[in-house]
Every structure is written in structure tokens, then in C-alpha cells.
Amino acid sequence: MTLKKKLAVLIDLSGTIHIEDCAIKGAIEAIGRLRANPRVRMRFVTNTTKESIGRLHSRLQKIGFDIAKHEIFTSMSAARRLVENERLRPMLLLEDVALEDFEGIDTTNPNAVVIGLAPSQFYAERMNEAFRLVLDGAKLIAIHKARYFKSADGMALGPGPFVQALEFATDTKATVVGKPESAFFHMALQSLMDEESAEEISAEDAVMIGDDARDDVQGALDAGMKAILVKTGKYRDGDERKITGDPPALDSIVDAVDYIERLIDNS
Amino acid sequence: MNWLSKPVRGLLLDITGVLYNSGEGDGVAIASSIEAVKRLQASDLKIRFVSNESSNTRAKLAAKLGRLGFEIQEEQLFTPAPAAASYLRQHGLRPHLLVHPGVQDEFAEFDMTDPNCVVMGDAEREFTYQNLNTAFQLLIKLDRPQLITLGYGKYYMETDGLKLDVGAYAKALEYACDIQSLVIGKPNAEYFSAAVADMQLTIDETVMIGDDILSDIGGAQKAGLRGVQVRTGKWRPQWENHPIVTPDGIVDNLAEAVNLLLAQNAA
Ligand SMILES: [Mg+2]
Ligand SMILES: [Mg+2]
Questions:
Q1: Which DSSP string corresponds to B232-244?
Q2: Which domain holds residue A156?
Q3: Domain of B89?
Q4: Are residues B118 and B172 both part of a single domain?
Q5: pLDDT tens digit sequence for A234-253
Q6: Closest ligand relative to B22 C-alpha
Q7: Do residues B103 and B172 both lie within one domain?
Q8: How far apart are CA A38 and CA A6, in angstroms?
């Protein structure tokens, strides 16, 4: 790896820097080191359809991380960006707690449907409403397509099945915006550049750190970025062998930050 | 027309779009079809009315058709719910039902404690996240998850707009559990064969008449039946040169088919 200008470091949250309400050992200090490095720009990237950025942020602060709200980029930020870029007026199939990420977006006379994990929205009447919009040509945007998730009372349906139902009935394909879609990583980078307006950062000057071999690491590699797999969180023995591209697999975020510092020093 | 080139001893008739068009309340009878059904009932032809209706018991459906002016015995109605019930009986299955309350009586005989399959029909308002999730949790616990659907339509028209049909919600559970459902209804070939067997006739001596070129005509032909298209209901002019299905006959309406058939049988 050779580095010309600045390095964009995209960092996954759950499993990479924290698990529930505990920081991964050494993570707070490691993030501090990255922040102190003048050649590094950071974004914290995660797939969520239930938690708003505000909630994620206050949780991270409580754990002790020095992270600003605008440094968090979620699959909902990506959906919002897509809506703004294409000037869409979405019907939002989202839970109330997630709606604040779409504050200020015009939702009258919708010409798009944004669908996340929203049990309170998934009933026949509301689904029919979304279905008619998509059949009439509204763009179907899925925050992600997870089949199910672990909930307090066992496995529970994710948003994927409901996206699938709409796709089947309307003969269309949803635009999925979360990790591991390449567009997600590019939009996260774009959000960095919007801020550092003077500076172009290309995908090859970006590195993704995450515990999910498929969603974090393979996704970033496929988007033309570099990537580091960390062996914390959901990592299972041998996960690195499922990745094409042979990225480094390191013990934790601490080693990943060491690795990035060496990379910068050597360039 | 070549659909009359072999003797005909039995008819399978689609209901919606052939006998009546749906709409406010019971809908509107296709006037000439009332007389045509009367003539058929007086002939020595055997008849089954083959439908994917899954929100009414046969008794209620017969009563509704009676109000529209059709004299039809309950036993002449062939709908997915009783066909599914006989499948459950043959395989010793205990169903969990996600169906319209109006059709539950067709399954009254079954033990529903500790279910080992899910039967899904057009449940309309019963399609909630809660109900779909209950069905999902049951399916993923099973060694061989089995989802049985009453029909597999994508959507249908109601007076207050288009509605998602059972196929869309079946797709959702198929995606969540990574399974294929067993479809009981048109255009499934076994469903047509079962209706023919119910008349104690053979495929060879039976003709299907319907308005849906794929589901009625294509499905019947796959089962080896002759399929006759009516130019009523959902028929479209461009179907006269349909890329996939070529009907064995095309008639203006049920009355024309009955005239041709009875004239031929009298000769
Ligand atoms: Mg993670
Ligand atoms: Mg029909």
C-alpha cells in the first residue's frame, strides 16, 4: 500500500469498537490515536434501521468514545443521501425512533418507498399502500435485506422478507443501500469529502476496519477500498478464508490502528 | 375449433371473470353466463367450478353465486382450502393457519396443537407483522419447514384499489426460511388433476374455461387439459397472440363456448 495524501479510515461499530455497552479493550485509546493523526479522516459506519444517529451517538459517548455525531454514517444516512441526490419524496416504512434521521425530507405525494425494520408498519393496509406506489413506478429503497434477527423472544422477521414481498408483487428489484453494497462505502466517503471540501479522497486511499468478513471487509474490497478484518465481535475462526483479496486479519482494532500508523509512516 | 375435436364429458370453469366480475358487494354477473350455467346443469356434462378463492368457505361462495343468479351446488365448487385439507389429511399434518377467518371452517377437523406445517391463504387484515412472525418462528423450528399456500397470486383488484395477494406474503416467508412453498391452487397442474378426479373423469375428456391466460389456460394445458380462453374478465386483446400460451380455443364468453359444445354433443 502506498499513500499519497490523506487516508480515510472507515470503522465499523458493533463488534469492532464496542459490544453492547462495553468498549473493546484498548479501542477508546486507539480511536484517540487515529484522531490525533493529521493524515487520517474517520467515519464510523454501520448498518442500522432501528437506531437513529442521535441514539447511536449517545450510546458511544456513554461508553467513553470521543466521536462526533457527524462522523457516524449509517445505512439510514445512505438512504437519506440517495433520496436527496435523486430528489425523491419517500413514503417511510420505518419505526418512529428512526424517523429523526429523515427530518426535513418532503414526504408528501410520495414517489419512493424507503423500507427498514419496522414491525409497526408491516400490516396489510400499509403494505398495500407501499405496493401501489411501487407498482406505479415509485423507487423501492431497502435499508437492508436481512432475513431475520435475534430478538428478546427468539428469532424475528427482518425487513428482507417484506422487501421481497414487494419486489415479487411488482416485478421490481429494490435498491439496497446498506453494507456490503459498494454504493454504501462510496457514499460514506462522499460524506467525508463534503466536509473536507477541498480534498478528493479516492477509494484506494480508504481503509475499512470491521469484524464482518462479508459486510465490512469483502464489501469494502469490492468497492475498491483496502480493508482490515478484526478478530473480535462476530468473527469466527476461518472467516478470513471466505474473503477474496487476502486482506490482513488482526487481533483487534488496536492492532488495526498500529497497522495503519505503520502504513502512514512508511509512505 | 380444435378444442372440440375430441369428445368432452366434463368442464372446469373459472369463476371470477367467467361467471361474474368482482366489484361493490357481490360484484356483477356476466348476464349470458347465468343462462349458460343453467343449460350446462341441465345437460349430462359434469362440471366443477375451479377457483383460487381463499377467503370464503364453499358454502359462503355458493350462497354468493346464488345471489348473483347462478344455481351451483356446494359440491361443484373446487377451491384451494378443501383441497389443502385433503392434502393435510393424506399426510397426517397438523396445520398452523394464517388464513381469512371466513375460510377457517374448512380446517375444523384438524388438531392444531403442536403444528408441523403452516397453511397460508389470502388472510387480508390478518397479514400483520405479529401473525407473519408467529408463522415464521414456527417454520424455522421445524426440521422440514413446510409452507402450504392457497393459491399464489401476486395481487388483485378490490373496489378500493389493488391488494397484495397471498403469493407476496408466501414469498416473504420463503425468503425468511429459505424454503419453497407447496402451492395448492391454479396454475398448479396437480390442482387441475384433482378437480378432474373429483368428477371421476379423465384429463382427456375434460376442458378448462377461464379468463386468465397464464393461470387458467396455461396451467390447464400443463396438466394435459384443453384450455379455452373467454374474452371476458381480465382478458386483453393482445393475448390473441400471446408469446407463451396458445389456447385450444377462444370464445367471446362462456355462453358461446356452451352453445358450441352442446350443439356438437347433440350432433
Ligand atoms: Mg460489526
Ligand atoms: Mg378468473
A1: STT--GGGGG-SS
A2: 87-176
A3: 80-184
A4: yes
A5: 999 999 999 999 999 999 99
A6: 2
A7: yes
A8: 8
The last residue of a domain, from among B184, B208, B224: B184
Residues B87 and B143 in one domain: yes
Domain for residue A77, yes or no? no
Note whether A150 contacts B: Cβ–Cβ < 8 A: no
Judge residue A118's burial from the number of C-beta atoms within 10 Å of its C-beta, 0-12 exposed, 13-18 middle, 19 or more buried.
buried
**Grid coordinates belonging to B60:** 359462503
CA end-to-end distance (rounded Å), chain A: 8
Instruction: Look up residue A208 and give its three cell numbers.
Output: 475499512
| Grid cell locating B50 | 375451479
Pairing relationship of beta strands B10-13 and A206-210 according to DSSP bridges: unpaired
A182 Cβ under 8 Å from any chain B Cβ: no
Please report the pLDDT score of residue A1 as a whole number: 47
Is A139 contained in some domain? yes
- Residue that finishes a domain, picked among A176, A206, A229: A176
Instruction: For Cα atoms B78, B83, B85, give the angle at the middle one, nearest 5 degrees.
Output: 135
Q: Which residue of A has its CA nearest to B127?
A: A124
DSSP 8-class letter at B101 = G
Q: What angle do CA B161, B162, B166 make, to 5 degrees?
A: 140
For residues B98 and B123, give the distance between their C-alpha atoms in angstroms, rounded to a whole number: 6
| CB-based contact B128 A131, cutoff 8 Å | no
Task: Note whether B70 and B105 are same-domain residues.
Answer: no
Q: Are residues B51 and B110 in the same domain?
A: no
User: Does residue A115 contact residue A162 with C-beta atoms inside 8 Å?
Assistant: yes
pLDDT digits (tens, 9 = 90+) for A177-232: 999 999 999 999 999 988 866 578 899 999 999 999 999 999 999 999 999 999 99
**Chain B residue whose CA is closest to A161:** B172
The grid cell for B70 is 347462478
Residues 6+ apart with CB under 8 A from A144: A47, A49, A75, A116, A158, A159, A160, A176, A177, A178, A179
Encode pLDDT of A61-73 as tens digits.
999 999 999 999 9
Q: Residue B267: which residues within 8 A CB-CB, separation 6 or more?
A: none
As for the ipTM of the complex, it is: 0.87
Indicate whether A103 and A166 sit together in one domain: yes
Count of CB atoms situated within 10 Å of the CB of A29: 13
Among A176, A202, A219, give the residue marking a domain's end: A176
Same domain assignment for residues A254 and A196: yes
Containing A186, the helix (H) or strand (E) segment is helix A182-195
Q: Looking at B154, B184, B214, which one is the last position of a domain?
A: B184
At residue B210 the predicted structure's pLDDT band, cuts being 50, 70 and 90, is very high
Residue A88: other Cβ atoms inside 10 A: 20
The CA-atom distances, in angstroms, between B253 and each of A112, B1, B33, B237 are: 40, 15, 8, 14
My answer on whether A151 and A132 are in the same domain is: yes
Number of domains forming the structure of chain B: 2
Ligand 1: centre distance to CA A14 (Å)? 4
Q: How many angstroms separate the CA of residue B52 from the nearest CA in chain A?
A: 17
Given a cut of 70, is residue A167 above it in pLDDT?
yes
